[in-house]
Write a structure and sequence with these properties.
Shape: globular
Radius of gyration: 19 Å
Structural class: alpha+beta
Oligomer: single chain
Largest sheet: 6 strands, mixed
Number of helices: 6
Number of strands: 12
Strand content: 25-35%
Order of helices and strands: EEHHEEEEEEHEEHEHEH
Strand order of the largest sheet: 3-6-7-9-10-12
Length: 198
């Protein structure tokens, strides 16, 4: 999508091949990511919490300059494995979480997580951080805040390939979309904090 400086969108004709190419799985997380980012902007604006998306560490190797104002990155690679998607501070607690979504209807596949992410969550939990994953079941448009401790237990069990939806319903906290914030996940974090104090 192209927008002009006045905010209007440019409508270009789309060829059939281009329309088909847009349906890739690489964009799956964007909707959830946008919802979280909008929520984080609201929380920051209202001075409720400071939570940001972590940048992915990328090393740019080759750049072409066809014109002075139009640099094109031709080659880049990840400098190191990134940890989780988001971190920040809320009510004096360190927050660290990953955002994931799935089209599965009965479970959440554990292959969506990487070993270095699990190790990072384990390390943050040892330092008393509030850690979780925000899971979206896209088919049902359902959202859950699922504690990292539960996720780690499932991930570390070599016999398991996924977390059943029923387990996420029982151990997680379901949240609903709203207006401001778009995704009020801090309501669920309040519950995690209460559980910790018991």
């Amino acid at each position: 999508m192209v927008k002009y400086p006045n905010g209007l969108e440019a409508n270009f004709p789309v060829k059939k091949e281009q329309a088909t190419k847009r349906l890739s799985f690489s964009d799956r997380g964007m909707t959830l990511e946008e919802q979280i980012n909008e929520s984080n902007e609201y929380y920051l604006e209202k001075q409720i919490a400071v939570v940001h998306k972590k940048p992915t560490p990328v090393q740019i190797v080759k750049v072409d300059y066809p014109k002075r104002s139009k640099a094109v990155i031709r080659e880049a690679y990840f400098r190191q494995a990134s940890t989780t998607d988001y971190n920040g501070v809320y009510r004096g607690y360190y927050l660290d979480f990953e955002a994931k979504e799935t089209r599965n209807k009965r479970s959440f596949p554990l292959k969506n997580f990487h070993e270095h992410q699990i190790v990072h969550l384990e390390n943050c939990l040892k330092q008393q951080g509030i850690c979780f994953t925000l899971i979206k079941f896209t088919t049902f448009d359902r959202y859950f805040v699922y504690p990292a401790s539960q996720l780690i237990t499932y991930y570390r069990n070599p016999k398991l390939k996924s977390i059943p939806l029923t387990e996420i319903e029982n151990s997680g906290i379901e949240i609903s979309c709203g207006y401001r914030p778009t995704l009020p996940y801090l309501d669920a974090v309040d519950s995690l904090i209460k559980d910790r104090k018991k």
